[in-house]
Amino acid sequence: MSKEPVLTKKDLFQCARRWLLGSSTFNYENQMATTCVYSQMKALRKMYPNDEDYKKSLKNQFKYFNINPPMGSILLGMTLAIEDREGLDALDTVNDMKVSLMGSISGIGDTIMWALIPTVFGSIAAYMGLEGNPFGLILYVLANLAIFVGKFFLWDAGYHMGSRLITAMSSTLSALTEAASILGLTVVGFLIATTVDINLGLTFTMGDVAIDVQTDILDSIFPCILPICATYIVYRLIKNKVNLTWIILGIIAISMLGAATGILA
To answer: What residue ranges in the chain does DSSP mark as E strands?
Structure first.
């Protein structure tokens, strides 16, 4: 059931400030989830006066999250708006939206924030500097200052986008949750195939015929079967509450041993 939202522009500005301060916080367990919690914890506290509800929301924010920091403000503003209106009923929707959209939004942010703007304004500033014109340096500083200031308004922009979304689909939140969940699972499956890389270095030789186990056998039967199996094993270990640090150390040890023995290429 929708409720009256309680967050104000001041709350969103505080989220933006804390996000900028903590965006360098990163770990191998849940990536930038700690920053999510740090940036939103005061806003969530205002939304959830009840301690148990507040803890449930914080726990949901601690789930895996990784995104381009400037553009991440838009996505987090959207999910914050949804949770502000729908409360604990929206926790699954919030997490599914974060997982499903963080990759595409990061692609946009990396292209614009990390490549396009620095390259364009840096080139202009460098060319003007070579000509002895000091305005090139001033232009580059002003461009970066504008980007920095603009980051504070991205939370507000995302919040209003999320408000319009949940208003338009207030009667179909379950459909939105299911759609976000399906998209999230699709993205996770894509990440497994593209980021988990396991290749065997084994070759069977019979006379003059050499058969590569990876390319000639495994890939012809089921491409990416090893990454899928490895992901499933890690998933089961996590479900059995094995410490993530030990899982990471185990992966490193197996990788080093496989490379040393030639089993892994």
So the answer is: 203-206, 209-212
- Average pLDDT, rounded, for the chain: 83
Whole-structure pTM over 0.85, yes or no? Answer: no
DSSP assignment string, 80-131:
HHHHHHHGGGGHHHHHHHHHHHHHHHHHHHIIIIIIIHHHHHHHHHHHHHHT
Q: Report whether 16 contacts 155 (CB < 8 A).
A: yes
What number of other Cβ atoms are within 10 A of residue 80's Cβ?
Answer: 27
Buried b (16+ CB within 10 A) or exposed e, 204-233: eeeeeeeebbbeeebeeeeebebbbebbee
Interatomic CA distance for residues 174 and 124, integer angstroms: 50
The tokens 């059995």 sit on which residue? 240
Other CB atoms within a 10 A radius of the CB of residue 239 amount to: 8
User: What are 113-144's pLDDT values in tens digits?
Assistant: 777 778 788 888 888 888 888 888 888 888 88
pLDDT digits (tens, 9 = 90+) for 244-260: 889 889 999 999 998 88
Q: Is 169 exposed, middle or buried (0-12, 13-18, 19+ CB in 10 A)?
A: middle
Which is nearest to 68 in space by CA: 32, 28, 22, 122? Answer: 32
Which helix H or strand E contains 227, and what residues bound it?
helix 225-239
pLDDT of residue 177: 59
Biggest CA-to-CA distance, the chain: 76
Question: Facing residues of 65 across strands?
Answer: 31
Distance CA 150, CA 85 (A): 25
Phi, psi of 147 (to 5 degrees): -65, -45
Cα–Cα distance measured from residue 85 to residue 13, given in angstroms and rounded to the nearest whole number: 19
